[in-house]
């Protein structure tokens, strides 16, 4: 159930990101996080399972959390750079409270996403979920071309500023902090 909540919540962020990225001239293709469904099988000795679309090939890791806890982007392909820009966007969009930490998939279709958050109770999590990754991301992320054309701010290591609305400090009433006219 938790995996479904995390992947499907990340999917919703990705849909908003995709809409904004498509508004930027020449941004091109955007990652898509596929839905993960929870199914109930009462006659089975394991009554719950997850189900998702067959991606049609072996998954490639684009952005992952290593065993030592570090975040790593696997390469410099367009997909990897756009996944990194998506991570930056979510981090900024949620006022440094949520980070999509793992993204793998086939082509532009992503699965097996994970999150880091310092929000207690986010998606039913009883405790914070890897909050140290939020600080590490701010310190280690290197903005790329896609971060730049989306107008994302360069990250500086700082504590989250509380529960301010994402719309605070925007110059216009846009849906996210990135696209300022």
Automatic annotation (TrEMBL):
Gene Ontology molecular function: ATP binding; protein serine/threonine kinase activity
Keyword Transferase: yes
Comp. bias (Polar residues): 172-181
Keyword set, alphabetical order: Disulfide bond, Immunoglobulin domain, Kinase, Serine/threonine-protein kinase, Transferase
Alpha-type protein kinase domain boundaries: 1-155
GO process annotations (BP): cardiac muscle cell development
Annotated InterPro entries: a-kinase_dom, Kinase-like_dom_sf
Protein origin, superkingdom: Eukaryota
Cross-referenced PROSITE patterns: ALPHA_KINASE (PS51158)
A family per Pfam: Alpha_kinase
GO-annotated cellular components: nucleus
Region Disordered, annotated ranges: 160-181
Ribonucleoprotein found in the keyword field: no
Protein name, UniProt field: Alpha-protein kinase 3
Annotated organism of origin: Podiceps cristatus
């Amino acid at each position: 159930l938790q995996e479904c909540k995390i992947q499907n919540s990340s999917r919703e962020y990705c849909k908003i990101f995709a809409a904004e990225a498509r508004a930027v001239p020449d941004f091109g293709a955007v990652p898509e996080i596929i839905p993960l469904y929870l199914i109930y099988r009462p006659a089975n000795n394991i009554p719950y399972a997850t189900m998702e679309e067959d991606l049609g090939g072996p998954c490639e890791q684009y952005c992952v959390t290593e065993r030592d806890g570090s975040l790593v982007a696997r390469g410099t392909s367009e997909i990897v750079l756009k996944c990194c820009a998506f991570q930056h966007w979510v981090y900024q969009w949620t006022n440094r409270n949520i980070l999509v930490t793992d993204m793998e998939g086939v082509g532009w279709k992503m699965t097996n996403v994970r999150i880091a958050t310092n929000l207690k109770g986010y998606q039913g999590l009883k405790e914070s979920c890897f909050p140290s990754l939020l600080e590490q991301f701010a310190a280690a992320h290197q903005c790329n071309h896609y971060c730049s054309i989306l107008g994302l701010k360069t990250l500086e290591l700082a504590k989250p500023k509380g529960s301010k609305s994402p719309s605070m400090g925007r110059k216009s009433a846009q849906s996210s902090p990135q696209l300022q006219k």
